[in-house]
Amino acid sequence: MRAEETQGLEAELQRLAPRADLLDGHRLMYLAGRAAAMAEHPVHRSPNWAWPLAFSLPSALAGMLAAVLLLRTATGPQVLQSLDEGRRASAKVSTGQERLSAQTSPNVSAGTPEVPDPPAPASPLPKAPDPGMAATAPDGRQPVERPLPNPWAGPSSPLARRARLLQAAARAENLEAEWARIAAPAEPRTTAFQMHPQAVLTPWAVRSAHTRGLLELAELPGGPGS
Amino acid sequence: MTVLAPEQLARLLDRYGAALVLYARQWCRNPEDVVQEAFVRLAGQSPAPENAVAWLYRAVRNGAISAGRKARRRSCHEAAAAHRGEPWFETRDGDALDARQVTQALESLPPAERETIIARLWGGLSFEEIGLLLGASTATAHRWYQNGLARLRERFSASCPQANPARK
Prior knowledge:
The structure holds 2 protein chains of 2 kinds. Chain A is mainly alpha-helical. In chain A, 61% of the residues lie in helices and 0% in strands. Chain A is built from 7 helices and no strands. Chain A has helices at residues 2-15, 25-40, 50-104, 106-111, 131-134, 158-183, 203-219. Chain A starts with a helix and ends in a 7-residue tail after the last helix. By secondary structure, chain B is mainly alpha-helical. Helix content of chain B is 69%, strand content 0%. The longest helix of chain B is centred in the middle third of the chain and has 23 residues, at 52-74. Chain B starts with 5 loop residues before the first helix and ends in a 9-residue tail after the last helix. At the A-B interface, helix 1 and helix 2 of A face helix 1, helix 2 and helix 8 of B.
């Protein structure tokens, strides 16, 4: 009895048709055919990273070249100019030292044949006026010049370059102070505003002389400070 | 390296398409998509599986369980409400059993028994294939089937004695 009941229930249940109204047979067959074709004749597609790589590599190379070009245009002429100035400064220092040695010990220098200075190397850049070397102290003394360090030579790390720049600036200030000391007139000033012509040569000397003159003007009788 | 022929695929779709949709409906809201994906994957299989029906049932089962998990993660309550409303069978006048009532009865069964009954009655799988599909022995699959049918009979006789097919 139980088996008959079970068979009857099975038969009744099997008569029910499952719902599959949303199953699109045509679309399914189309997709299946495409999948079968892809399985039989696989298309060798390039991997996903090929195109991005092919785009990014030339872009990075172009960027690097542009950066190199910008750095070269920014630093190249300055380096050449500073190199040229360094050469000229070293040549002038050598001539100044020879003159000083000739003044202090003429006997020694008289015995030795004079060796002409080697010609300065030709510079591709136009020569800038050198106001510092055109000045001469009133007592005929020549300042002892040392070649300015080239801040662009040497290691190229930012800290090293900054240290060299500071060192060059300090040395330049020392030179200016030395110039001011040598070029200053020995006699005491009696005029209200006396500016030595040599002081015009440098901005530091101009500034100091201007300030000094204003102070002296203020202290004159009838001035604002009297 | 031979894929399934289009005629074989069409025959499988005609015979097992709806049954597979019913089988997948136990777990997810979009069983048609799961079945379609399984058929497309079967068409791309090279070489084609020896037992295509068993392969289809396994692929549909895995896909439906995965889709059901994703749907539950998205909106659990919404999915449950929508799932409860629609019957799993077509409503026809000549049927002795009500489609909505059978759907509710099947939903009330334990999962293993429900799965066994659907695969056996509408999929036509043997108990051995069902055992392989569910990871159980043939005897266990047979026992699940008998227990499930007994529960269904009790439910139908209790809820609607007139529609009890055992009286016929």
